[in-house]
Write a structure and sequence with these properties.
Helix 4 (109-131) runs antiparallel to helix 5. The termini are close together. The protein has a single domain (10-204), classed as Methane Monooxygenase Hydroxylase, Chain G, domain 1. Helices cover 81% and strands 0% of the residues. It has 6 helices and no strands. The protein is elongated. By secondary structure, the protein is mainly alpha-helical.
């Protein structure tokens, strides 16, 4: 039986969990915003605050990497994971702000589903990060994130096709095309974060 013992620096794992929980909160906030579509300025401000908190956590991780003699995973892998998680939260903020900037009256059914998918991915990422210390039972979370990304691909393609087959003003087509792209890119970023964690997991195992 192969035994793996990670260097015990609890602070790293606390920061991973905090980063994941912050990301999940941002994804949930975007989902609620798109689903309810009220108090937009307040909801966007909340997401912006979560993005700033994510940046603070990233800086804490960077400082920890500089100060720590031993790290639980390769320094490059930790940096990549935190960077990928940051990409997701940045994408969430960008999507939320774009709904307001573009003056969207009501989100489409596809946008609501894509936001729900991103929310689901956020929950799975956070759950996996909670388990990273023990390196057990992470595969199901990775599989769920990949499955959600695959579902999002199909929804995005259908939404784009509908844009160009309906009689819409060109400006509406441009706005919704950008929004769908931003949503899909953020969902892809969540999958990238999962893959970064998978690599860490497999190296440790």
């Amino acid at each position: 039986m192969k035994l793996h013992i990670l260097p015990k620096d609890p602070k790293f794992f606390e920061l991973f969990i905090a980063d994941g929980d912050n990301l999940a909160a941002a994804a949930s906030a975007l989902h609620e915003m798109v689903d309810q579509y009220d108090r937009l300025e307040v909801r966007v401000a909340n997401i912006q605050a979560l993005e700033k908190r994510g940046d603070e956590i990233d800086r804490e991780v960077t400082q920890r990497l500089e100060d720590a003699f031993v790290t639980p995973f390769d320094r490059e892998d930790i940096h990549e994971l935190v960077s990928r998680l940051d990409d997701v939260v940045d994408g969430i903020q960008s999507v939320a702000e774009s709904f307001v900037i573009y003056g969207v009256d009501q989100p489409s059914a596809e946008a609501k589903r894509l936001a729900a998918i991103l929310d689901g991915q956020g929950g799975e990422l956070a759950a996996a990060l909670h388990k990273l210390d023990g390196l057990k039972d992470l595969e199901g979370h990775f599989a769920a994130i990949h499955a959600l990304e695959k579902e999002a691909d199909g929804i995005s393609r259908s939404a784009m096709a509908r844009l160009f087959h309906e009689d819409r003003p060109p400006i509406e087509v441009i706005k919704w095309r950008a929004l769908y792209n931003d949503l899909e890119n953020t969902i892809d970023a969540a999958e990238d974060a999962a893959e970064a964690m998978e690599r860490m997991y497999h190296k440790a195992n």
